[in-house]
Amino acid sequence: MTAESDPWAAHARRTVGGPRPLLTEALELLGRPRRRVALDLGCGAGNDTLALLERGWTVTALDGSAGALALVQERAGVHRTRLTPLEAGFHQVPRRRYTLVYASLSLPFTPPARWDRTWRAVRRAVGVRGWFAATLFGPRDGWAGEPDMSFITAQALRERLDGFEPVVLREWEGEIRLAAGGLHPSHTLTVIARRLSR
């Protein structure tokens, strides 16, 4: 598959690096859970997947790009036995429960028509007393209005977290530099929440 037909694979190659601050923050809050099973939604280059694997987690890395998943498998090396690559859309989350469901900057790329279905699938994947960590885009983000992307207000996010205890719920606005180059006006909502009930 060429870069033109799989732009996310090219993006993954451009963004190889270390884990995002969101994962570091989430893992500090989790401590050392006895069951370390994670779902990385939109794993991209696998930066966060690899950080989890190196800490002894078993990880399902889900992405819509076969090229990105191939890169993750290549980078996983000796940790491959605890990695399950899954080429799928976010609404196709496996029907199992995870200690951590992690989605850094990926869920906003869900088309609005699939948003509700995707959110239900993601909620269902978080085990009782499990954790959900994500960065979502707010309505003042520079991409707001893109027809194939989803945006959420802080109030709507709080309402969708019923049954969860939000430990971190942070809103931020400012400019960021994109991996492809250029500055982008960003509006993000960061959440780290623990599931309390079924």
Automatic annotation (TrEMBL):
The keyword S-adenosyl-L-methionine does not apply. Coiled coil: none annotated. Its EC number is 2.1.-.-. One of its GO terms (biological process) is methylation. It comes from the Bacteria. Residues 39-126 form the Methyltransferase domain. Pfam families: Methyltransf_25. One of its GO terms (molecular function) is methyltransferase activity. InterPro entries: Methyltransf_25, SAM-dependent_MTases_sf. Keywords: Methyltransferase, Transferase. This is Class I SAM-dependent methyltransferase.
